[in-house]
Design brief:
Elements lengths: L6 E5 L6 E5 L4 E3 L6 E3 L7 E3 L2 H15 L3 H11 L1
Antiparallel strand pairs: 1-2, 1-5, 3-4
Helix pairs in contact: 1-2
């Protein structure tokens, strides 16, 4: 039986960059600051078997940082 990948959205504790990673990994590297993050020491913001859902969460996080959350939600509704 094929197991589905499980994805997590995390926030880098050093630079606050959101990132998607597979939950089975022990570590991941932040694409912004290059620090190695131990997943056992980081809270998951979101978990899903669907990478598209995790990508939407990243979009929401980034949009809210830029005060563009309402525009992002409107874009999501229009793209469906």
């Amino acid at each position: 039986m094929k197991q589905h990948k499980k994805y997590a959205v995390i926030i880098c504790k050093y630079c606050k960059q959101p990132k998607i990673t597979e939950t089975k990994q022990k570590t991941t590297t932040c694409p912004r600051c290059g620090k190695t993050l131990q997943l056992s020491k980081i809270s998951f913001v979101y978990e899903s078997n669907n990478i598209s859902e995790a990508q939407q969460i990243i979009g929401q996080i980034n949009a809210s940082k830029d005060d563009q959350l309402n525009e992002f939600k409107t874009f999501l509704k229009q793209s469906r």
